[in-house]
Amino acid sequence: MPHRFPLAIRLLHWTMALLIIAMLFIGAAMVSTASPAYASLIALHRPLGIAILLLAALRLVLRFATGAPPLPADLPRVQQRAARGAHILLYLAMIGLPLIGWAMLSAGGYPVRLTAGFVLPPIVPRDALAYGLLRQTHGLIAFAFFALILGHLTVALIHRFVRRDGVLETMGFARAAALDPELAEPEEADEPEVEPAETPGP
Ligand code: HEM
Ligand code: HEM
């Protein structure tokens, strides 16, 4: 069994964590401003949100293809199940929230513009009621996502500083030797000294 997630998954995990946290703050700033900054914030919010959707899809494919390191065997079953459930919810939010954002703008009849010349097609028909519902759902799920991330962060820190069981390190970049000395590459066996060949005398 591997001792940590494959490099591609670890890189995706931390890149996406930064993007998602930035997006939560961009979203909150967007809805609490009436200044001209709104236009720049939403122009950033749409393409970043769609990038998160694509990265989440790629991450799920990689995750199914490569599996995950096992949780510590002494972790109670209920906590193993809770971890699994929380991870599934995190994946659902990473995929669902951007899709709801896209659907919300489609229902409102707003273009989902990613760059000046690139607009995504609508994914639901125009409907004012649906727009209102999706707008509320987007806000509620974003809030729940934030709470879930805080819980996830807390549990990760408990693993690191209370249980000290190596779970945080499965998502980290420390050298294998620092995780578990037994994983260290075996030291190169010293080459036997080769005696210089005797040069025949003149
Ligand atoms: C992981 C991705 C996303 C996150 C974390 C996120 C987060 C947020 C948050 C926190 C808000 C403020 C909600 C509130 O207080 O009611 C918001 C609003 C909004 N989001 Fe997202 N969002 C994401 C993806 C998207 C996408 C992909 C789109 C569209 C393509 C989108 C469009 C919007 C719009 C239009 C608003 C409302 C702006 C307003 O009413 O003034 N979001 N988002
Ligand atoms: C936006 C923020 C974050 C999201 C969406 C997120 C999402 C996820 C998901 C979905 C997994 C499950 C991986 C899998 O089995 O495929 C995971 C694992 C993990 N995450 Fe996060 N994460 C975030 C932030 C953080 C932070 C801030 C930390 C720690 C400081 C952290 C530490 C970990 C660790 C240690 C694992 C492996 C745990 C295990 O295998 O049970 N994550 N994360």
Q: Mind explaining what this structure looks like?
A:
The C terminus is likely disordered. The chain has one domain. It has a two-stranded antiparallel ribbon with strand order 1-2. It has 202 residues and is mostly helical. The longest helix is centred in the C-terminal third of the chain and has 36 residues. Helix 1 runs antiparallel to helix 2, helix 2 packs across helix 3 and helix 3 packs antiparallel against helix 4. A hairpin with a 2-residue loop joins strand 1 and strand 2. The chain is built from 5 helices and 2 strands. The structure holds protoporphyrin IX containing FE (2 copies). The site of one protoporphyrin IX containing FE has 20 residues, from helix 1, helix 3 and helix 4. GO terms for molecular function: electron transfer activity; heme binding; metal ion binding.
Number of strands: 2
Helical content (DSSP H or I, runs of 4+): 55-70%
The DSSP helix count reads: 5
Order of strands, main sheet, comes to 1-2
**Largest β-sheet summary:** 2 strands, antiparallel
What is the typical, i.e. mean, pLDDT? 90
List the ions, cofactors and other small molecules found in this model. protoporphyrin IX containing FE
Short characterization:
The chain crosses the membrane at residues 12-31, 37-62, 83-105, 140-162. Helices cover 63% and strands 3% of the residues.
Relevant terms:
disordered C terminus, 5 helices, single chain, binds protoporphyrin IX containing FE, 63% helix, 202 residues, 2 strands
